[in-house]
Design goal:
Blueprint (H helix, E strand, L loop, with lengths): L2 E4 L7 H12 L2 E3 L1 H12 L3 H8 L5 H6 L2 H18 L2 E4 L3 H5 L5 E7 L2 H12 L4 H23 L11 E4 L5 H13 L7 H23 L9 E6 L2 E9 L5 H8 L6 E9 L6
Parallel strand pairs: 1-3, 1-4, 2-3, 4-5, 7-8
Antiparallel strand pairs: 6-7
């Protein structure tokens, strides 16, 4: 199964590259509306609210209302579920950062000079004001930066995060498609038992976090819990303030497909213990 994770940058012609790759490799391109729809349904929010939050433009009320950690986890879970199905090209949402250590996933960045991005978007949107168009692109880039930093503590512009970076200001779209297609078909990016297991472990981790979140809606376990999954074996660790009933959650976790063992090392301490 082919999986390509690509950045989503305004005006770089990445959309055209993605369309060409989908045709050349028979892939489904995952559009932002699909991700936003599923995340909104899970969080019981309007799709427009999720869109503004993920684009870095929520209102003050939305910033207060939305649990950003939970939003990040649900977005990551949606991306992983789509990747697990295979034969997809996922643009944006931090897919390259989320999947870069799964060896058969090809992580791609398509970039372009700002002058070209402005020209492309002006033509695409039928506008004439270059200054306002540049401001819009920069605002979008900054929102993307904040989202990736919040979710992964990383810089999406860092070329070390990608298998290939192509500048469409110098490399034609057809050439970009040909180069990425060649890489995707190479032995390096074919599935192996190890790479399938790595992706499956990531899916299990997100399922575990969903169960823990769901079992403590009012007082979530939060980032104090460390979850590691290796070959289906789960290890839970960390320190949580106050006592929480976790046996029911552990029973649900055991039922996740692919789970082989659970090692629970979570420590519960009194809230005023000073720990």
């Amino acid at each position: 199964m082919t999986i390509i994770a690509m950045t989503r940058e305004m005006g770089t012609l990445g959309k055209d590259v993605a369309a060409g790759l989908a045709q050349a490799l028979d892939l489904t391109v995952i559009h932002q509306e699909l991700v936003e729809h599923h995340v909104a349904a899970r969080l019981q929010l309007g799709e427009s609210t999720v869109h503004r939050f993920l684009e870095g433009r929520p209102s003050m009320w939305e910033r207060w209302k939305i649990d950003s950690d939970r939003m990040s986890r649900y977005t990551a879970d949606e991306i992983l579920q789509l990747a697990h199905g295979g034969n997809v090209l996922i643009r944006g949402w931090g897919a390259a950062q989320l999947l870069r250590d799964v060896s058969h996933v090809l992580c791609v960045r398509v970039c372009a000079p700002m002058s070209q991005r402005v020209s492309v978007m002006k033509e695409r949107l039928g506008v004439t004001d270059s200054r306002s168009m540049r401001d819009e692109i920069e605002q979008n880039d900054n929102a993307h930066t904040q989202t990736i930093q919040r979710q992964f503590g990383d810089d999406w512009r860092n070329p070390e995060n990608y298998d290939i970076v192509l500048n469409s200001g110098f490399v034609a779209v057809d050439t970009c498609i040909a180069l990425i297609t060649q890489l995707a078909k190479s032995p390096t990016y074919q599935e192996t038992a190890e790479s399938r297991r790595a992706l499956a472990d990531k899916v299990i981790e997100t399922e575990v976090r969903k169960i823990l979140d769901g079992s403590a809606t009012d007082t979530p376990f939060g980032p104090g819990i460390n979850i590691t999954v290796e070959g289906g074996k789960i290890r839970l660790g960390g320190v949580v303030g106050g006592h929480r009933e976790i046996d029911a959650s552990l029973n649900k976790i055991r039922q996740i497909e692919g789970v082989t063992e659970i090692e629970n090392d979570i420590a519960f301490v009194p809230i005023n213990s000073g720990v």
